[in-house]
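so my prof wants the structure for this chain in the tokens format not the other one, which i didnt know existed until like an hour ago. anyway here's the sequence
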Amino acid sequence: MKREKVTSQIEQQIVVGLVVSVEFLSQMAPILDVNLLQSKHFQIVAKWALDYFGKYEKAPQENIEGIYHAWVSGAKAEDDLIDSVHEVLENLSESFLSAPNLNIPYLLDSASKYLSNRKLEALKDVLEYHLESENLEAAEAALAEYHPISSNKDSDIDPFNCMEAWDAAYADSQASLIEWKEPDARSFFGNAFSRDALIAILAPEKRGKTWFCLEFAFRALSQRKKVALFEVGDMSTSQIMRRIGVRLSKRPSYKKDLGIIKVPRRLFRVDGKVETEMKDVSCDCTANSNSSKKAVDMFLRANGIKPKEPFFKLSVHPNSSVSMHDISAILKKWELYEGFVADVVIIDYADILAPEPGTGHFTTRDQVNSTWKALRRMSQEKHCLVIAPTQADAASYNQPLLDLKNFSEDKRKLSHVTGMLGLNQIPVEREKGIMRLNWIVLREDSFSVDKCLHVGQCLKLGRPFTCSML
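here's what i got, hopefully its the right format
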């Protein structure tokens, strides 16, 4: 039963990709044999998409409905098959709005793996038949005719002859998963928050790393990206839920904060110093269960997310109880049973993960290195953005600006990440509601450790990022 469900799910994902995404369709067209799909109704819709692409070099998208009606009017198919195809199209119409947010690179990998498995199973059946008939020549001929399925996502490509690889490298799916309305923020972050990236957030204790994790999560969610947040020991379930409630409801957690709360609305400079222009927000109630649930409903409606559609998954675990290996297994379970494939994976925080399996005899530093290698591997294998806070060293407590020397445990963290973001704040900035962000390392763009993005923040209302200025 589980196998049938998983098979149906991956075939449905393939068909959705073929109908709505020209990026997916263009890379699958050269390698897809629709007969490898087990379900007849998926075969029919897949063939429509391939034929449409062959004629127009586009994905059919909403035109698939017209193709269906033409097929029904001229088809001699049984009613059950027509009903099954109609059900596929109904699911497609529900998925169409989220089509731009498909994880195309990961779907390509999953589709290629599934189709390869199906093709090998078919070859196995043919070989067994010929061997049982003692027809060795036919068996050898079938083996000789076999060609493995490979997409341009495979590790071995020919850059001078594989033009699809160039299309994939510059495809829309490689753009930033979190977009910034603020011009200064766009300039500072650039394309750092893209797929396949591993971003670390470096700061000393209680500097606000978890708040920034939630900020990045909700900015991604508001842009209809799927987010998985793993809280792995820094906070309990009720603690992180209350923070989410504060963020969504814009109400403080504590009665002592009720009344007028000052929120930074604009940053400006006076005599070279950054100052904040505040606005007064009146709050007469703290966040609670009812206000949080109403805020969830408002957030979903504002961003076009259906209540039953999995977009945000939270998984909470005690300190040192799960490893990256375990987190990968959880993500796989969500994919198999709920169809949830994360665009953004946040792990709060990486330093308190359990060691990876088989590293029990390693030194502490080598165990930490194995964890960060696993973080990087996840970003590459799942083609997602991975964000992982990490603690700075003791010297960072009194240091106004974090730099390359402020890593903890093992400097090889700096080698594995595609970017490490520092959180900087001196006491007077804390009073003004200002945080300074700086890039400590950044792989894909030019940067200066001394160049800071000043961010206004109001943590009482769960807003670590209200405005910004370079």
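also thought this was worth mentioning. The first strand starts at residue 198 and ends at 203.
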